[in-house]
What we know:
Helix content is 65%, strand content 0%.
Amino acid sequence: xxxxxxLSSALDLLDEVGLDAVSTRQLAKRLGVExxxxxxxxxxxxxxxxxxxxxxxxxxxxxxLPEPDDDWRDWFPENMRSFRRALLMRRDGARLHAGSMPGGxxxxxxxxxxxxxxxxxxPERAAWxxxxxxxxxxxxxxxxxxxxxxxxxxxxxxxxxxxxxxxxAFEAGLALxxxxxxxxxxxx
Length: 188
């Protein structure tokens, strides 16, 4: 058993039972080991959840970074779509990711993306704000989508609220953010 095996099993457990039911006891049982042996790889459940969140974001974290000749208006929404896809790949992916802080390579990637926006003519403050706002919008959208999926057929929905097409709603909100950001280009 190594760190990668523990992490992979933890993510499989997440997909099967959901975030609320993930426990080190359940994970140890799944791996056929005693619970204390997990602490050789992860000091506590919080550290395990942090590693799970980072691993769940790997598809987005390894996506190509923007090139200088890319159009930021095309890159920006695609970056958020990539983030959304990564969150949706795991049951409770948005809840797992919420509250996690970027570190190391993730901070470098974020700085590269923001520098790309700035070099493309987006004012620095607007670039940082847009990355934060769009990221939080994406996270919140996926959280609502995953809650609706867990809820099932919408039985809890009130009669006057139609079912949500989450992808269309996400795209519409993303377009509003993009339009707002475009208005800042050339103003400062």
